[in-house]
Design brief:
The complex is a heterotrimer. By secondary structure, chain A is mainly α. In chain A, strand 1 and strand 2 form a beta hairpin. Chain B is an alpha/beta fold. In chain B, the strands form five sheets. Chain B has a five-stranded mixed sheet. A five-stranded parallel sheet of chain B has the order 8-7-6-11-12, sandwiched between helices. The N and C termini of chain B lie far apart (86 Å). The longest helix of chain C has 17 residues. Chain C has a six-stranded mixed sheet with strand order 6-7-8-3-9-10, sandwiched between helices. Chain C has a five-stranded mixed sheet with strand order 14-13-15-16-17. Chain C has a four-stranded antiparallel sheet with strand order 2-1-4-5, covered by helices on one side. The N and C termini of chain C lie far apart (55 Å). Chain C contains ten helices and 17 strands. Chain C is elongated, with a radius of gyration of 26 Å. Classes of the chains: A mainly alpha, B alpha/beta, C alpha/beta. Chains in contact: A-B, A-C. The interface between A and C is large, with 39 and 42 residues.
Chain lengths: 358, 382, 344
């Protein structure tokens, strides 16, 4: 080893670490700022010093404000933070594993499976699930229905994944499952009451306010678990960039990794959809935003960046939803395409200039 | 000088004719023999009686400056059109209606009240109709089940050969071209768009004329109107005004009925203070939970309409959304629910607003109606 | 110097399964050995089973029957991790690596040796830098893979397999689609790696030229004859190259080490030239124009035209009327091939 050799090595290392940590630091700060903004800004105007008082445990003049900040805005901000991260990471893993830049959590049909579960509970069972003396109703029934629906579809996908080696086949199975479940949902809607259909449609618009403070621990733990597993998948994902044959040669057990990946994506998507309804575009667009930002496909940096970007964008969407203030709110799925669609269009038009497409 | 006067006269003549140029499919000639029916509350329809025919116009509910439809109502003996002025344009309807297709359960209930039950030949959305007689008639075949109101069985309708279809305008906007080709008069029932309970009730006069039960209709109208106004007077005399909110959170939106909606008006006339009365709309607005909580957490009463196989309970509400339990109405157990799966709320209340008002008054000011038991809204179970 | 055997096969069958139960055997009863420090080229017609053989050796495809042992142990007893540290592959597969820098791509080869996140320590970085230098693309280590030429991309893939530190490297047509400069560079590189780093390199190729120059051994694989292994020169000189491609209109030029199409000759001509080079290229041109060439000793010169190539600017035809009866001269002279070929 000569001097030029080691100095070049150090140069390269520095470059790599700079590329990564710069963005991670910026995004982390942004997330903190957005999180605070989500507490400050809402439909009801609450003065800043009152917010500080509430956060520090002091009492304020209007006790309703206490509940609004701690009971409504805080869980909502946490939900947005985790949902954004979960969906973005799911999208990234699917895009890499299936070598498809247009893959997103909805492509495997898991979202539609969840929607079917909800449709069955809302439209067919009349809003409650009863088994003997045990009965759950209302929002909780919807959550359970959604979860069961996504898990069933996930099970189907994994079953086919062990049979089929070809990735494209699995994507096609996912799309077919989507179509079939969609048509069953149409059928249920057709024969249902006006209120049922209305409720179902409203559920389909997505919202971050569906997690109560009691359900928050489960929500946080399950999504954090999924995100943690995703972090451990960074190394195999990088290997998968080379294609399955090279990845195999690097010691990756393709079937095992793919199954683990599908389960992780499944859980992240199922939990998110169960509590927040099907949220569009974040899983599809955020990985592209991250790649364009940091200019690399290396998952060592890309995964954490995507995660943080997802949180940031979800928090931004949440803010946009409450813009009308006291006069109303905008549904979530009307806001996410505003950010998501331009990104996708930009990526498609500039395909040739973008390195990771070539 | 002469020219200027000429121009002024021309301008005045043009101005005089402008109003009759605006909107509308039909020109109504104000013949001196026309007798306009005086309507106290309703704005969406008008009736003018002539010697040989009656002209009924229904306004466009989305643009009330325009006429949606004009009907030329002819009695059987005036079927010969010889006396009809050529300039009258409208849909000819031969009265009284004997074989109608009724799309909405509201009108089924009303027609039955008018004593014209036998004129119902076909219904839609059977699953929404609570009247046991209708269910029975469909079973024994005297009334046809035509399926989904937005997409009814056209062949069956043709087979019935009805003399009119009673459709709500929003259903009509998706109406089948086949049905419009049938040349069966389509009666646009825009009654649901009236802005007050009594205005909506006044449509009974229109339906009364259509079914040949004008006298009965007028009688019902006067009776109900009186009862309603008596109740209202009674409620308005109370000193306290309990506060009230309504609805539930559905996903991210809590749909709140506007201050000028039917419910908003009813709350006011039952002697309560509707928390959202300053939202001056006749429809519903989606508000965030925060806004509703901020304004309504201290409301005394809370009304919820829902459709479930089992009645809602406080426990269920809490598991739906935990923060509901922080509302005063929840804590004091003053939530009233109406399970439309079991009560004929949607069917009956449009043409029996006094019953609904009575329910509300009983709840807000129980001392005024000590023996009365509420029909629609009952206290939520534990 | 006797070399160690790294891979040995006894009576193996290779092939694949179709559907659930049917097995298609591509080759059976193959036996061979691979030694350390050698570059072996696997040559054969398309469809001969070269890729199947390579896939079976890299354990990507299952062995149908027989014994395959690596470093003395049955290959089936190795775990995935162990295989990844012992057998490396280079393919022509397309990848999603356009957005990675060359350094990042090559560092992927260290995965079998690194921990959970693939973190690189100093030793890893050293190995990577060395490999980049060895293949000659260290000046591009910060460029995106998508910015490289095909030849450079291939070199990057080779660098990647180098840092995997495998004693056996298998390459499936590594020089396909490359220009001649890249082809030679890469073959040279592989040869250097094999001899200097004592690795075993087996590659399938259609570049016969370079294979014959730089390979220590040849493996000739065909559907009809199975596998023939041997030192390059032995196989050339014992005529194995002739029968490799079982086609009547292709022949192997043992002198020059190339395959050429057999001529459909219509006429004959006698050729003589001042040296070997001129003779060779003269015959080349004449064959192309469907002339069979004879030596001056062979036939009587009276019945045929005689071509005498003295230098590249001096070509004479004697008895040109034998070529075409229109020509009246008894001797024609040209100062380049272009003008003389116009006569034919």
């Amino acid at each position: 080893m000569n001097a030029s050799h080691t100095s070049k090595k150090i140069e390269v290392e520095k470059l790599l670490s700079q590329k990564g940590t710069k963005y991670i630091v910026i995004l982390s700060i942004l997330i903190v700022v957005l999180f605070v903004m989500n507490l400050i800004i809402g439909s009801v105007h609450i003065p800043f010093d009152s917010i500080l008082d509430i956060l520090f445990g002091n009492t304020v003049e209007k006790s309703s404000w206490n509940f609004i900040i701690l009971g409504s805005r805080l869980p909502q901000a946490i939900t947005a933070l985790l949902c954004g991260a979960a969906l973005a990471v799911s999208g990234l893993m699917l895009q890499t594993a299936f070598n498809n830049p247009l893959a997103g959590p909805s492509i495997l049909g898991i979202n539609t499976g969840a929607s079917l579960g909800v449709a069955i509970v809302m439209l067919f069972l009349g809003g409650s699930i009863t088994a003997g003396i045990f009965s759950i109703s209302g929002m909780f029934a919807v959550i359970i229905g959604s979860f069961i629906g996504s898990m069933l579809v996930l099970g189907l996908i994994i079953f086919f994944s062990t049979l089929l080696k070809n990735n494209i086949m699995i994507l096609i199975i996912g799309i077919m499952i989507s179509f079939v479940t969609s048509s069953i949902i149409s059928l249920l809607n057709f024969f249902s009451t006006a209120e049922g259909v209305h409720s179902y449609i409203i559920w389909g618009m997505g919202n971050f306010s569906g997690v109560s403070t009691e359900q928050l621990p489960f929500f946080i733990i399950s999504l954090s678990l999924g995100l943690l597993i995703s972090i451990f998948l960074i190394k195999p994902l990088n290997a998968l960039l080379l294609g399955s044959r090279y990845a195999e040669n690097l010691g990756i057990n393709i079937t095992r990794i793919r199954n683990l990946l599908l389960i992780t994506v499944g859980i992240l998507t199922a939990v998110t959809t169960a509590f927040c309804g099907p949220i569009s575009f974040i899983g599809l667009a955020v990985p592209h935003v991250a790649r364009l930002m940091i200019g690399t496909s290396n998952h060592n940096i890309l995964m954490p960046t995507t995660l943080l970007c997802g949180s940031a964008i979800a928090l931004i969407c949440n803010l946009i939803c409450v813009l009308p203030g006291e006069t109303g709110i905008i549904p979530l799925n009307a806001v996410t395409p505003i950010i998501g669609a331009p990104v996708i269009v930009y990526v498609i038009i500039n395909q040739r200039k973008i390195q990771y497409f070539n | 000088m002469k020219n200027r006067i000429l121009y002024i006269i021309i301008a005045l003549v043009i101005f005089a004719f402008l109003p009759s140029c605006k909107g509308g499919k039909a020109k109504t000639t104000s013949s001196s023999a026309g007798d306009t029916l005086k309507l106290k509350y309703a704005r969406q329809f008008s009736i003018i009686k002539y010697k040989d025919y009656t002209l009924a116009t229904v306004r466009n509910p989305w643009d009330t400056s325009k006429i949606l439809e004009t009907y030329i109502l002819l009695n059987k003996k005036h079927k010969s059109n010889s006396n009809l002025p050529k300039s009258i344009k409208g849909i000819k309807v031969i009265l009284p209606l004997k074989k109608t297709v009724v799309y909405s359960s509201v009108h089924c209930s009303l027609i039955s009240q008018l004593g014209a039950y036998k004129s119902i030949a076909g219904v839609c959305d059977l699953q929404y109709i609570k009247m046991p007689e209708i269910q029975e008639s469909v079973k024994n075949g005297s009334i046809s089940d035509l399926g989904n109101g937005l997409n009814p069985d056209v062949e069956k309708i043709i087979n019935l050969n009805p003399d009119a279809l009673l459709i709500s305008p929003f259903q009509n906007s998706g109406v089948n071209t086949k049905i419009s080709q049938l040349h069966i008069p389509i009666i646009q029932c825009a009654d649901y768009m009236e802005v007050s309970p009594l205005a909506r009730l006044e449509w009974i006069k229109f339906y009364g004329i259509l079914f040949g039960k004008e006298k009965i209709a007028n009688g019902i109208f006067s009776r109900v109107e009186n009862e309603y106004n008596e109740l209202k007077k009674m409620a308005m005399q109370t000193k306290n005004r309990p506060t009230v909110i309504g609805g539930v959170k559905s996903s991210s939106a809590w749909y709140i009925a506007g201050g000028q909606s039917i419910m908003g008006i009813l709350y006011k006339e039952a002697g309560a203070n509707y928390v959202f009365s300053d939202y001056k709309v006749t429809g519903s607005i989606p508000l965030s939970f925060e806004t509703v909580y901020d304004k309504g957490s201290e409301a005394d009463f809370w009304f919820i309409k829902y459709n479930q196989s089992q009645n809602k309970t406080y426990g269920e509400l809490k598991s739906d959304y935990e923060l509901y339990s922080h509302f005063k109405a929840f804590k004091t157990h003053n939530i009233y629910g109406c399970n439309t799966n079991y009560t004929a709320y949607y069917e009956e209340s449009p043409y029996n607003p006094q019953k609904l008002l009575k329910d509300l008054i009983k709840i807000f000011h129980p001392e005024l109606l000590p023996e009365y038991k509420t029909i629609y809204f009952k206290k939520l179970e534990e | 110097m006797k070399k160690n055997t790294i891979l040995s096969a006894k009576n193996i069958s290779i092939g694949y399964t179709i559907g659930r139960n049917k097995i298609k055997t591509v080759h059976s009863k193959l036996s061979f050995e691979l030694q350390e420090g050698e570059l072996i080229s696997l040559i054969g017609p398309n469809g001969a089973g070269k890729s199947t053989l390579l896939r079976t050796l890299s354990t990507s495809q299952a062995l149908l029957s027989g014994n395959l042992s690596f470093k003395g142990k049955a290959i089936s007893s190795y775990s995935e991790k162990e295989i990844s540290k012992n057998i490396g592959i280079v393919l022509t597969d397309s990848t999603q690596t356009g957005g990675l820098s060359v350094y990042e791509l090559v560092s992927l080869g260290r995965q079998p040796h690194t921990g959970f996140f693939g973190r690189l320590n100093n030793r890893d970085n050293e190995i990577i830098s060395e490999a980049l230098e060895a293949v000659g693309i260290d000046h591009k280590s910060n460029s995106y893979m998508s910015e490289l030429s095909d030849g450079e991309k291939q070199k990057a893939m080779i660098a990647k397999v180098l840092v995997q530190e495998c004693p056996l490297i298998l390459l499936d047509e590594p020089t396909a689609f490359l220009d001649v400069v890249s082809r030679i560079e890469i073959m040279n590189l592989l040869h250097k790696i094999a001899s200097e780093q004592n690795k075993t390199i087996l590659l399938s190729t259609h570049d016969i030229e370079q294979a014959l120059i730089l390979s220590d051994k040849l493996w000739l694989l065909s559907k009809t004859k199975g596998l023939q292994c041997g030192v390059t020169e032995d196989l050339i000189l014992n005529g194995s190259m002739d029968s490799l491609f079982n086609k009547k209109n292709i022949s192997f030029d043992t002198n020059h080490g190339v395959y050429y199409p057999n001529i459909n000759w219509k006429k004959k001509i006698i050729v003589t030239a001042a040296n070997e080079t001129l003779l060779h290229w003269g015959i080349n041109a004449l064959n192309r124009h469907n002339y069979a060439c004879m030596g001056i000793e062979d036939e009587d010169t009276a019945n045929y035209a005689l071509l005498r190539i003295s230098s590249k600017d001096n070509v004479e035809i004697l008895n040109p009327n034998k070529i075409s009866s229109n020509i009246k001269d008894s001797k024609l002279q040209f100062n380049n091939f272009e003008s003389f070929l116009e006569i034919l």
